[in-house]
């Protein structure tokens, strides 16, 4: 259980450490703002949920409402669900327990992810090649 005050803006840093499962992450009743992908800043985009493939890492910002909200990671095409509870000063965890049985909302991003260069990049050796692919 994560405890915070209503109106707090929190950063969720999530990693999919699974070897063969894509997860859909959502926080009931909240919009998620994606700010980083695999440690690199991106143009912020908002959505109801996020598909996370194997090995991907994301930073999400969310401004919390008042109550208790399930944070769910639902595997795509498989049974089961990972669950955490985000609770603000008021709100009952029992009231949101029924919401955990409902499927996560579909992924609806307002825009595609666009890479944004960090303020300063360290110099890299010219013989080294690093491949980046934007999240979709």
Written account of the structure:
This protein is mainly beta. The chain has one domain: Sandwich (Immunoglobulin-like), CATH 2.60.40.420. It has one helix and nine strands; from the N terminus they run βββββββββα. About 20% of the residues have low confidence.
Mean pLDDT: 77
Ends apart, CA distance between termini: 30 Å
CATH architecture: Sandwich
Number of strands: 9
The arrangement of helices and strands along the chain is EEEEEEEEEH
Structural class: mainly beta
Strand order of the largest sheet: 1-9-8-3-6
**CATH homologous superfamily placement:** Cupredoxins -  blue copper proteins
Fold blueprint:
Blueprint: E1 2-3, E2 9-15, E3 23-27, E4 32-37, E5 40-47, E6 49-52, E7 57-63, E8 68-75, E9 82-87, H1 93-97
Parallel strand pairs: 1-9
Antiparallel strand pairs: 2-7, 3-6, 3-8, 4-5, 4-7, 8-9
